[in-house]
């Protein structure tokens, strides 16, 4: 049966999500999930009816939170579906290309490859910023440029002036897609205010991180109405299940937003605690992070990852040599992780 699959799919290596990698332990800091398990109520009525394609209460709620007009919002099954929609809507297979800048989120490349769209790679600079000259030299055939800020897995912010320069370089040529999955931890760094000036800007958002709703699979694309209208042509007819919409609307209520912001403050304090503790250890480098995770460089990252794994502390290995990404959990999880790493490094 595998031979019946498209050639691109036969050759495809699936994205190794945290759940696919697995693990067995009691400290899970590998998927940038929130440690908060918030309760929601839904009566599960209306399940005999299809959901709205774009539920008005959900669109209005997120538009108000993001500071945009409802016609600038499209909701989808996580931001991952937003990536796929943009590629399907704007890239001709075997003709157009996307451009992305590793080290960064792996689904841009996989979604393009699945669709038969060329992938152009322009690595970030040594300080993990955009190489604008190299990007400009590689824009031929490019319809979408993906930029993640805060970047996953490095955790840094992309310079605002470079984002603006990129938007100007790509005007009337390509759409700049800002992946703001972690922007709720540093909302002041959002590019949402640039939508008014740049029609070639699209922004990906999710409720998986700061809203503690990774299992809900609810994401958003923010863009000017012309882009939203194009995406509406290719999205599935009923992308958001009724219970998903109900719970997301509760999370976007005044009380829900207050709880989210309190939890973001708590996680930011835990990130500072973990960063300070790790910074006191010899032989490692802790990179400044703006999301709910930290990237840490060890003398032997693979060995540290495996040792933690064997002791029930599940972290995330990184494509960056000797680096391990650590999600920010609750204070107890951070303390256990710090204690383990301290003892492991002393023993080494």
Automatic annotation (TrEMBL):
One of its GO terms (biological process) is L-histidine biosynthetic process. InterPro entries: Aminotrans_II_pyridoxalP_BS (IPR001917), Aminotransferase_I/II_large (IPR004839), HisP_aminotrans (IPR005861), PyrdxlP-dep_Trfase (IPR015424), PyrdxlP-dep_Trfase_major (IPR015421), PyrdxlP-dep_Trfase_small (IPR015422). It comes from the Bacteria. Belongs to the class-II pyridoxal-phosphate-dependent aminotransferase family. Histidinol-phosphate aminotransferase subfamily. The keyword Amino-acid biosynthesis applies. Its EC number is 2.6.1.9. Pathway: Amino-acid biosynthesis; L-histidine biosynthesis; L-histidine from 5-phospho-alpha-D-ribose 1-diphosphate: step 7/9. It is an enzyme of class 2 (transferase). Its cofactor is pyridoxal 5'-phosphate. Residues 41-339 form the Aminotransferase class I/classII large domain. This is Histidinol-phosphate aminotransferase. It holds the Pfam family Aminotran_1_2. Keywords: Amino-acid biosynthesis, Aminotransferase, Histidine biosynthesis, Pyridoxal phosphate, Transferase. It catalyses: L-histidinol phosphate + 2-oxoglutarate = 3-(imidazol-4-yl)-2-oxopropyl phosphate + L-glutamate. PANTHER family: HISTIDINOL-PHOSPHATE AMINOTRANSFERASE (PTHR42885:SF2), HISTIDINOL-PHOSPHATE AMINOTRANSFERASE-RELATED (PTHR42885). GO terms for molecular function: histidinol-phosphate transaminase activity; pyridoxal phosphate binding.
């Amino acid at each position: 049966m595998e031979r019946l699959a498209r050639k691109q799919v036969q050759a495809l290596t699936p994205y190794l999500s945290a759940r696919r990698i697995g693990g067995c332990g009691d400290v899970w800091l590998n998927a940038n999930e929130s440690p908060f398990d918030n309760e929601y109520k839904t009566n599960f009525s209306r399940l005999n009816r299809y959901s709205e394609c774009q539920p008005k209460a959900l669109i209005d709620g997120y538009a108000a939170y993001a500071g945009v007009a409802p016609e600038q919002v499209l909701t989808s099954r996580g931001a991952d579906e937003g990536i796929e929609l943009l590629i399907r809507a704007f890239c001709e297979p075997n003709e157009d290309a996307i451009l992305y800048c590793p080290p960064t989120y792996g689904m841009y490349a996989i979604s393009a490859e699945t669709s038969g769209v060329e992938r152009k790679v322009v690595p970030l600079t040594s300080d993990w910023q955009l190489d604008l000259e190299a990007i400009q030299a590689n824009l031929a055939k490019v319809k979408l440029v993906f930029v993640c800020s805060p970047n996953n897995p490095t955790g840094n912010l992309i310079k605002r002036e470079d984002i603006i320069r990129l938007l100007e370089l790509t005007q009337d040529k390509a759409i700049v897609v800002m992946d703001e999955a972690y922007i709720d931890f540093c909302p002041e760094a959002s590019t949402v205010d640039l939508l008014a000036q740049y029609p070639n800007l699209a922004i990906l958002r999710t409720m998986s991180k700061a809203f503690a709703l990774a299992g809900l699979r609810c994401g958003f694309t923010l863009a000017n109405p012309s882009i939203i209208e194009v995406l509406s042509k290719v999205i599935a007819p009923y992308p958001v299940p009724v219970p998903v919409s109900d719970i997301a609307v509760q999370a976007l209520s005044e009380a829900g937003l207050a709880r989210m912001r309190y939890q973001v403050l708590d996680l930011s304090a835990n990130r500072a605690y973990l960063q300070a503790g790790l910074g006191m250890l010899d032989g490692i480098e802790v990179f400044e992070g703006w999301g709910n995770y930290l990237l840490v460089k060890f003398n032997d990252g693979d060995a540290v990852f495996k040792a933690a794994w064997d002791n029930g502390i599940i972290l995330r290995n990184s494509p960056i040599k000797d680096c391990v990404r650590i999600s920010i959990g609750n204070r107890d999880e951070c303390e256990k992780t710090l204690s383990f790493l301290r003892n492991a490094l002393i023993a080494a």
